[in-house]
């Protein structure tokens, strides 16, 4: 038994030695390729230095670089590989050209090379407006050379962020709110929880009072850094990610609901601003009314010119003092003979005295201005409930769907302004006149209009600019069984030449009120009744007379604006409102008397 046991022990020792040897060979086989890869096969010399007399020749080093590039080749672009290899060769050639005095001392081992893909931002573009930097900021990361890469697009279209501090504070507040509930549940993090809560309250108070960077308090930088440090500590605490995710989703839902609320509120306020008179204009009307009753010396009339048919009579329906003033001023400034011009401003009782004083205080060359209160001139045989109040030209937005499956962006929309009920009182209000030109109060005249008085309209009742993109046939669903020509074009108010003699002969006003009773229950009844009333009775004015769309269209041609005789600001964005399109306001504001005392007192500055 003893002899047998002694024979087994030497065998075990032999097997153990073989196992250790195999393990050593395995480790060695792993270390040798690693050494070649790291370039350690060139020799192990003093730490940090290697004598050049033992260094490998340039061909060996270049082949070593080529091997590295070949191994990494599939992940790199060809341009990068060529540039890297050429740099390595240049460096090798410069090393071989080192003087012998320096060869003895040695040079440091070259540091590890980091390969960076070249992007459009890495290359300085001579033809561009701005020269790009030669390198990429390490904090911004590396852009991928892929078509449509967001990183490249961001670099090429980088713009300076406005109010970046406010946006950063909002982001910090969003993240802090997400982490706070989870941190508050951990008893050991009471201090951090109180700190987060305090920072959240401070930022909420700051953001409630500030909307831009200029509104922020001076110490906001310290508060932002404190919040950032608190958020970093909160992220280092191990919390349940599900809780944070739920809170983020809750905040997102609340933010979405808040955004929808503000969109609806914005739409409501937009319509409110469009349909109501600005505070400054209301102040102007009240101040003028009070001043009128203080001093009656302005009350003077030149009635002999008001009904002279040989003069040029212009009619304006308006309850806006400065709007009607701009129309008259722009017309007179471009007139060849202002002495032959008479303007009739029809307004309501509320603005009558303000209008009267304004046009008595201000002169418009040799032109005469008459102000009428339409509430005092409404005939008895019309519907007095309807005509007792001034109604301005009605504006309609007509939209057409290109096809059933087409997106909403392909819809075609036209803005059309049409006569109101008050326009059909013209034959009775001006019984002695034969022809008048009606101007809306949202127009600006840029040329002499005297040529309109010599137009031969061939028996037509009114001259207007026609819009044949909207025909009666396209509105047949609203007209039902009414008799109409489907190819008849719609027309625009703004600038209209009216033959009052022909109007009275054909009984246009009576026809309109008859049609109003037939279509009174339909949407846009005034629009439909006016189109049917003047069917085949419109004399088409040349399109160069009027350019419409300055109250809604941002894309009008500037050259077309300068050539047009009349600019029509039809749409919601009138030039006297803050909502007006800025680049079109200059054509309107230059005819406003900014030095008037009442304008400055009421802060009227459209």
Helix content: 40-55%
Unreliable runs: 1-6, 42-59, 71-141
Number of helical regions? 22
Rg, Cα atoms, Å: 42 Å
Overall shape: it is elongated
What's the count of strands? 16
**Biggest sheet overview:** 7 strands, mixed
- Secondary-structure content class: alpha/beta
Oligomer: single chain
Mean pLDDT: 77
Strand coverage percent: 5-15%
Strand order of the largest sheet: 5-4-3-8-13-10-14
C-alpha termini separation: 119 Å
Can you walk through the features of this model?
It is a single chain. The protein is of the alpha/beta class. The chain is 46% helix and 12% strand. The strands form five sheets. A seven-stranded mixed beta sheet has the order 5-4-3-8-13-10-14. Helix 12 links the parallel strand 3 and strand 4. The chain is elongated.
């Amino acid at each position: 038994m003893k002899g047998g046991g002694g024979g087994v022990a030497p065998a075990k020792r032999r097997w153990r030695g073989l196992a250790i040897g195999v393990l050593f060979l395995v480790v060695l086989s792993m270390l040798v390729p690693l050494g070649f890869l790291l370039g350690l096969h060139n020799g192990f010399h003093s730490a940090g230095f290697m004598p050049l007399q033992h260094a490998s020749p340039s061909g060996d080093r270049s082949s070593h670089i080529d091997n590295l590039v070949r191994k990494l080749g599939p992940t790199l672009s060809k341009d990068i590989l060529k540039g890297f290899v050429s740099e390595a060769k240049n460096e090798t050639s410069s090393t071989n050209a080192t003087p012998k005095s320096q060869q003895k001392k040695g040079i440091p081992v070259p540091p590890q090379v980091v390969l960076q893909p070249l992007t459009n931002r890495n290359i300085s573009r001579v033809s561009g407006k701005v020269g790009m930097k030669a390198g990429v900021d390490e904090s911004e990361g590396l852009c991928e050379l892929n078509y449509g890469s967001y990183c490249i697009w961001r670099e090429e279209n980088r713009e300076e962020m406005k109010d970046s501090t406010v946006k950063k504070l909002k982001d910090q507040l969003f993240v802090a709110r997400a982490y706070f509930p989870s941190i508050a549940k951990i008893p050991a993090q009471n201090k951090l929880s109180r700190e987060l809560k305090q920072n959240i309250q401070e930022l909420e108070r700051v953001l409630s009072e500030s909307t831009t960077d200029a509104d922020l308090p001076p110490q906001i930088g310290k508060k932002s850094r404190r919040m950032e440090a608190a958020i970093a500590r909160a992220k280092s605490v191990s919390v349940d990610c599900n809780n944070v995710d739920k809170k983020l989703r809750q905040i997102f839902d609340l933010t979405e609901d808040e955004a929808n609320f503000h969109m609806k509120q914005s739409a409501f306020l937009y319509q409110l601003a469009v349909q109501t008179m600005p505070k400054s204009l209301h102040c102007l009307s009240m101040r003028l009314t009070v001043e009128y009753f203080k001093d009656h010396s302005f009350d003077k009339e030149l009635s002999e010119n008001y009904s002279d048919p040989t003069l040029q009579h212009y009619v304006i329906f308006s309850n806006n003092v400065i709007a009607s003033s701009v129309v008259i001023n722009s017309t007179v400034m471009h007139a060849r003979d202002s002495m032959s011009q008479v303007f009739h401003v029809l307004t309501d009782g509320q603005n009558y005295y303000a209008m009267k004083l304004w046009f008595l205080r201000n002169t418009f060359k040799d032109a005469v201005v008459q102000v009428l209160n339409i509430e005092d001139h409404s005939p008895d045989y019309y519907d007095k409930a309807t005509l007792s109040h001034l109604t301005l030209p009605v504006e309609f937005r007509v939209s057409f769907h290109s096809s059933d499956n087409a997106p909403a962006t392909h819809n075609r929309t036209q803005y059309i302004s049409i006569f109101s009920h008050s326009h059909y009182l013209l034959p009775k209000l001006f019984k002695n006149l034969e022809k008048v030109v009606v101007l809306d109060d949202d127009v600006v005249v840029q040329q002499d209009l005297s040529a309109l008085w010599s137009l031969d309209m061939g028996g037509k009742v009114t001259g207007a600019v026609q819009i044949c993109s909207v025909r009666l046939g396209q509105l047949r669903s609203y007209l039902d069984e009414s008799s109409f020509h489907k190819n008849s074009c719609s027309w625009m108010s703004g600038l209209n030449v009216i033959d009052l003699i022909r109007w009275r002969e054909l009984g246009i006003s009576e026809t309109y009120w008859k049609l109003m009773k037939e279509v009174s229950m339909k949407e846009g009844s005034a629009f439909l009744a006016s189109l049917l009333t003047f069917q085949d009775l419109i004399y088409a004015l040349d399109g160069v007379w009027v350019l419409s769309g300055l109250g809604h269209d941002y894309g009008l041609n500037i050259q077309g604006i300068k050539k047009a005789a009349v600019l029509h600001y039809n749409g919601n964005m009138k030039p006297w409102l803050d909502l007006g399109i800025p680049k079109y306001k200059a054509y309107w504001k230059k005819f406003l008397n900014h030095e008037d005392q009442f304008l400055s007192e009421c802060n009227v500055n459209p």
